[in-house]
Amino acid sequence: MMLRTRITLTIILLVSFKLSAQEIALEKKKKDTTSIGRLAVYDAKQAFLGVTHAFSRPFHWKKKDFATLGAITLGSLALSTIDDEGSAFFVRQEPDVPNLFQEVGTRFGSPQVYFIANAGLYGFGLFTKNEKIRKTSVLIISSSFTAGLIQSLSKTAFGRARPGNIYKSTEFRFWSNEPEFHSFPSGHTVLSVTMSHAIAKQFNNTWSKVGIYTLGSIAPISRLFSGAHWLTDVALGAVLSIVVVDSVDKFLFSTKAYDYQVKEKNRISWKLHFSGNKIGVIGTF
Questions:
Q1: How many domains does the chain have?
Q2: Which of 2, 5, 96, 105 is in the most buried spot, having the most CB atoms within 10 Å?
Q3: Burial of 15 from C-beta contacts in 10 A (0-12 / 13-18 / 19+)
Q4: Is 274's pLDDT higher than 80?
Q5: Nearest Cα to 216, choosing from 235, 199, 240?
């Protein structure tokens, strides 16, 4: 009797396992047979939703969010007190900076290279039907559109003078169309940090993250050496990118738009740090 019961239980377990395996295989087959066109339409929808979510966040801010905004504003004002001296320091170092470093920084932060790189990344994810790569590209697209639009409007609205002219960092011509008054914030920084932060969030390995963020920092630093931006232009551009990417990324995971999990272990926690006349973004591993 006991032997018969054991045999029966074993058969039930084997059948159950087989059915579960079949269900998993069937589900995977369904995903694999989804047309590329439908995947592209789905991704475009998620990118649009990500953009609308990011722009609507200020209407849902709570007290701590406004406190963070206030802290960023005060920190930026404190950092701006050394903008002129800081720019002069970086420009003096420019002759000693390798040409390759400056060239990579200029190219990587340019809109043309940026969008070509992301188009290639998304194309690979789409045609291989790799959900993680598709999600990463959607995150980059929606975040860069959001941060890029804010950055473009801010440049015209603030009309801040660029370094290297006869003007100081405190010179503003609001709603100016003159290129020499389009300094704040740094567009190269916004694009570079947006892409590097979005990609780094997909890795659990600390050293992989460090490598990606190091590459992402080349464009912002090169803009300081070339005298194209002030310290606050770069700092606020980086903060804007990080905030937008984190907001869109959280939205995509909370809505379960893409069905895969990223381990929280070893993810970097970003915090703003203010001290005296300094402002910084600290990543805790």
A1: 1
A2: 105
A3: exposed
A4: no
A5: 199
Q: What's residue 110's pLDDT?
A: 82
Task: Give residue 8's pLDDT.
Answer: 43
3-class state of residue 187 by DSSP: helix
Encoding tokens for residue 163? 């370094």
Query: Of 282, 210, 257, which is closest to residue 48 (Cα–Cα)?
Result: 257
Query: What burial class does residue 97 get, using C-beta atoms within 10 Å of its C-beta: 0-12 exposed, 13-18 middle, 19+ buried?
Result: middle
DSSP E strands in the chain: the ranges are 269-275, 278-284
173 vs 160: CA distance, rounded Å? 6
- Residue 151, helix vs strand vs coil: helix
Residue 95 belongs to a domain: yes
- Residue 27 maps to a domain: no
Position 70 in a domain? yes
Main-chain dihedrals φ then ψ at residue 281, nearest 5 degrees: -115, 115
In a domain, 199, yes or no: yes
The structure tokens 């690979």 sit at 124
Q: DSSP letter string over 233-246? A: HHHHHHHHHHHHHH
Domain that holds residue 181: 63-284
Whether the upstream peptide bond of residue 185 has omega within 30° of 0, thus cis, is yes
Instruction: List, for residues 219-248, the tens digit of each pLDDT value.
Output: 999 999 999 999 999 999 999 999 999 999
Please choose, from the candidates 131, 179, 182, the residue with its C-alpha nearest in 3D space to the C-alpha of residue 156.
Answer: 182
C-alpha distances out from residue 34 to 28, 44, 47, 153, Å: 10, 15, 19, 39
Q: What percent of the chain has pLDDT over 90?
A: 66
Average pLDDT over residues 251-265: 74
pTM over cut 0.70: yes
